[in-house]
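QA checklist item 7 of 12: single-chain prediction sanity check.
[x] sequence parsed
[x] length recorded as 364
[x] structure emitted
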Amino acid sequence: MTRILLTNPSFRLEHGGPAYSVGRLAGALAALGHDVTVWAADGSADRVATMDPSGSVKIAAAELDMVLTAQRWDVVHDNGLWLPHGARIAGHCRTHAIPRLLSVRGMMQPWAWNHRRWKKRLAWALYQKRGVEQAARLHATADDEVARIRERYPARRPLLIANGIDIPDQPPRAPKADGAVRTALFLGRIHPVKGLTMLVDAWAAVRPAGWRLQLVGPDEDGFRAQLEAQIAAAGLSDTISLAGPASGAAKTAFYDEASLFLLPSYTENFGISAAEALAHAIPVITTTGTPWQVLETEGCGWWVAPETAAIAAALADATARPDRDLIAMGATGRSWVADNLHWPAIAKQFADAYADAIANPSLV
């Protein structure tokens, strides 16, 4: 049994994929028999209880320094860059010779580096560069992220472990009734990096008959108002609707209603919503800024350039297809996710990585 401390900026699901993936990882590790404690910078660690089927994950609600010194951790797994608490975690692990695994969670991608650029450069100089370089292991969720790390640190050998996914119980999908409106769904943060302005422009170009577009997620930096203005100016308010963040049964209901899933992001280190959509047997359109080439190789979606014209072409193809084609593609995607991304297998890969870092603490 390994004593693991998992730290994350937040476990509020409305804050994006890592809130879910790190929380579920904690539960899957506990189910394997490990002693797992979670801490969140925003005090939301208690949210993990809803993501822990084992019921064994310990919740740390105290201030970070108290948590770090509460016991001798075998390994600390920190998630994400750019927040000052990461420097405190790195310093404690360095002082006490505790191996630290750092999941960069997309924060070394070019778009992330350039977003709020001056703050990132300052944080890099003050604490982040040292924290990255002194991590015993660097973890990436996709090949492109591995490449980004290797560009900066050619001698490092980052761990490549995908995020896991739950496979929901659901009956096989059935075609919509004749004349029924079909739904294309985006579910994620309403944020510029998600490529939603491109998606609205693509929808305006295609205007698929018998379809509507549903955008679901929390507004960030007031971007929703900008998007609503764009939708209205394009005369699409009757076919494009926005809803706030959804979780649990409400999120499942959105997936159940959808016939097509859209993730037009400029960049994603993983794109947990694409995996969730495939697990719900929905074909996916996403961009080459995401690590989802499997959509093409397995025939369960479209993987296109992050450009309006390319997204529009994929939309035109997908929305012209009969339900039986989309249902067959979705079933293929669900089978692939079940074979490759189920949580028990992913948790075992992390447990093996922790064991190796403990036994071989030198940087790799």
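[x] summary fact logged: The chain has a mean pLDDT of 92.
[ ] second reviewer sign-off
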